[in-house]
């Protein structure tokens, strides 16, 4: 059963002559972690700013819990935002940074103290209330910024690439932390990123954008395993995208070989695109597999080896725990469940 909290209805937005969003429609559910994912310039931050009230659409409606808030200013929306630059007050300690919004509302002192301490527990900063924010690590400062936003009890929290300034290890740790916080407070998080790993790690729902248009909406598993088109397949993780022909239901030809697959509903002899993930290719002895190729490069990635294997002019990317040397001849097998068929995009 759906339980929408935000509906963007036929949104159009331009900057000067540059059309960013055209007839854009999106429904966001209560209590979900939704990520807007795409390359720079795809419209994801514009979408976030429209929801937050920092921008106004040229046309269309923004509906919040059944109410039209299209023209409401940010301070009248039950929505708070955490930006990439946390904008903490350096002259205030952790407690006063978090309490800032509550003091503006003139909330009683004892109630402020209770709420701030509860929020410090939520973001794992208990006993940090008297620390200066400048003495904190980047991850700790981010959690203060999140606590400052959440203590006001918004219905929705917007996060605009908040992990961008952190190093890789800290960023990975904060991905887990953000998901934990979202589940703990039980509100809607709308997250903007161009990082596929972040989206796959944290999200309940991913919205993949390109040129202001939605390419696919789905769970991380659906987006990864069942991409709608070549753009999604290529943008979400590594992919081999090969031209092929459907001969009949469950039978496809690519790389001059007939493969069984699990897809149906295509026209006979229809030209299609095939997606095969690098980790879904099994290396076997040359001459014993479905395909034969020659290793062109090998790179050690820590847990696995990433190889380029040339098969009849097409270069497959293969991820395997089995190491092969450059110029080795290898065989490759692909399970029918790991062959995904997509319609070709007419350009």
UniProtKB/TrEMBL annotation:
InterPro entries xrefs: AAA+_ATPase, ABC_SmlMolc_Importer, ABC_transporter-like_ATP-bd, ABC_transporter-like_CS, Mo/tungstate-bd_C_term_dom, P-loop_NTPase, PotA-like, PotA_ATP-bd
Entry keyword annotation includes Cell inner membrane: no
Catalyzed chemical reaction(s): ATP + H2O + polyamine-[polyamine-binding protein]Side 1 = ADP + phosphate + polyamineSide 2 + [polyamine-binding protein]Side 1
GO molecular function, one term: ATP hydrolysis activity
Tagged with keyword ATP-binding: yes
SUPFAM superfamilies: MOP-like, P-loop containing nucleoside triphosphate hydrolases
Keywords for the protein's UniProt record, in alphabetical order: ATP-binding, Cell membrane, Membrane, Nucleotide-binding, Translocase, Transport
GO cellular component: ATP-binding cassette (ABC) transporter complex
Domain called ABC transporter: residue spans: 6-236
EC number in record: 7.6.2.11
Pfam families named in the record: ABC_tran (PF00005)
PANTHER family: SPERMIDINE/PUTRESCINE IMPORT ATP-BINDING PROTEIN POTA, SPERMIDINE_PUTRESCINE IMPORT ATP-BINDING PROTEIN POTA
Complex formation: The complex is composed of two ATP-binding proteins (PotA), two transmembrane proteins (PotB and PotC) and a solute-binding protein (PotD).
Function field: Part of the ABC transporter complex PotABCD involved in spermidine/putrescine import. Responsible for energy coupling to the transport system.
Stated family: Belongs to the ABC transporter superfamily. Spermidine/putrescine importer (TC 3.A.1.11.1) family.
Protein name: Spermidine/putrescine import ATP-binding protein PotA
Lineage summary: Bacteria, Bacillati, Bacillota, Tissierellia, Tissierellales
Gene name linked to the record: potA
